[in-house]
Amino acid sequence: MKISIIGVGLIGGSMALKLKAKGFASHIYGVDQNENHLHEAKKLGIIDEIASLEKAVKNSDLIIIAIPVDAAKKLLPEVLDLVTQQQTVMDAGSTKSGIVNSVTNHVNRNRFVAFHPMWGTENSGPQNALSESFSGRAAVICDREHSAQDALKTVENTAENLDMHLIYMSAEDHDIHTAYISHISHITSYALANTVLEKEREEDTIFQLASTGFSSTVRLAQSHPEMWVPIFKQNKENVLDVLNEHISQLRKFKSALEKENYDLLEDLIRNANKIRGILDK
Amino acid sequence: MKISIIGVGLIGGSMALKLKAKGFASHIYGVDQNENHLHEAKKLGIIDEIASLEKAVKNSDLIIIAIPVDAAKKLLPEVLDLVTQQQTVMDAGSTKSGIVNSVTNHVNRNRFVAFHPMWGTENSGPQNALSESFSGRAAVICDREHSAQDALKTVENTAENLDMHLIYMSAEDHDIHTAYISHISHITSYALANTVLEKEREEDTIFQLASTGFSSTVRLAQSHPEMWVPIFKQNKENVLDVLNEHISQLRKFKSALEKENYDLLEDLIRNANKIRGILDK
């Protein structure tokens, strides 16, 4: 299968590596606004050929859009303008309502499958791409009833070749769930980094004392705004709901401490401990 | 050197394994209120002998107290009552002002060295102890001027045998810094777990969608209240300061989103990204 990867960064690059390794991709066209990324991806064997958007789309069975969600929302209608009823287009974005709504009335809407692989790191760029990044993880397909059966099947095969297991839901539900289990983690982590940077002016002390727990909690704070501002923007209402809930949960800890109510503090912690059973499943 | 480990859990157990492996400990007495932990530690070769507090302290050159900080604060004066000017006592607690203040006027204060190895996980118990847990990490010694030179030397040798590098500071400074780079991470993580548990009643959805980012951020939420309530209690003022700052940082994200001020949102994220330079050092 000939595949276009639009956005040869961490996500697109990791997909390309795996789909090639599996023999699912016979030829990969790379499209990116970032020339350095394109040449790096070519050098690393992530893509076979650097191509224009038009050439890549024209010659591909499958077009994978793996760029920031604001750019993806803008680009998808243009890509759908170019495809025939024999081609399939999928994305890889962390928000789904925005992109599906951008093509609701497009004549080729049925060629698009809304896809979200549940994996990412605080790093970006093709140099961080790994063929096994997605193995064993979940991927979400949204609003499958709006995709043609054969397009859906192509994306399901792609997910299988990425060694991912699929979950189906509406774009709306997806955006609520990801606000809770992904987007809020990033805001928390950013705010924690800012808290520490604000007060701990002596950088050496942070560096020397920073324990494994701290590193784990602020790891996501290294994630780039180019990717995350558009996500927060597209999922604003859900993220605000969760952020309000999170602030109110933090206030409970504050109140328990201020009132020296250590029984309440213990209850709050015991409740949080229940996450262990869920993470371990 | 004969060593008593009081509290044969994750921290005490990991120290024992390493100090034996290095040949620094010739015989290890284990003392614990938890009979199961004692027998487990004996079975795992973490300790050589189960002993009463009195017998263990009497026969040891070095006594390591590795129990929750409230219990340690209570036990330390009793241990100092039992030691001679030839013995050394150290702790491993995450707060330092409480324990040093508990023995300010003790006749054997000079035999105590306040110690904090900057490592831990969300797990506990001797079954999770690993000999290499501390390797390459920082350890803090507080208020060294209140310890006898030979006691200080013994603890410095111990840290060296744990392959840790030492940082010296006052107990007061320690408690401010750890509020920022450890204690707040735990509160954030607990509150995040509670936020998700509150709203995501469908546990299967959390499990299936939970990405690596989420797991990383809530990892610490699995930490037990037996250890953490006493830490928050002893470091209440500092933790409240940081918690207030953290809530105010989260409010900035909230305000940027509510006002759709995406330039501010980007600035907040770019500032948080600076943590990369510090974590990478």
Automatic annotation (TrEMBL), chains A, B:
- Which residue numbers delimit the Prephenate/arogenate dehydrogenase domain? 1-281
* Superkingdom of origin organism: Bacteria
Top class in the EC scheme: oxidoreductase
Q: Which SUPFAM superfamilies match?
A: 6-phosphogluconate dehydrogenase C-terminal domain-like, NAD(P)-binding Rossmann-fold domains
Do you know which InterPro entries this protein is assigned to? Answer: 6-PGluconate_DH-like_C_sf, NAD(P)-bd_dom_sf, PDH_C, PDH_N, Preph/Arog_dehydrog, Prephen_DH
Q: Which UniProt keywords apply?
A: ATP-binding, Nucleotide-binding, Oxidoreductase
What GO molecular-function term can you cite, just one?
Answer: ATP binding
PANTHER family assigned: PREPHENATE DEHYDROGENASE, PREPHENATE DEHYDROGENASE [NADP(+)]
This chain belongs to the protein called Prephenate dehydrogenase
Species per Swiss-Prot/TrEMBL record: Kaistella yananensis
Organism ancestry: Bacteria, Pseudomonadati, Bacteroidota, Flavobacteriia, Flavobacteriales
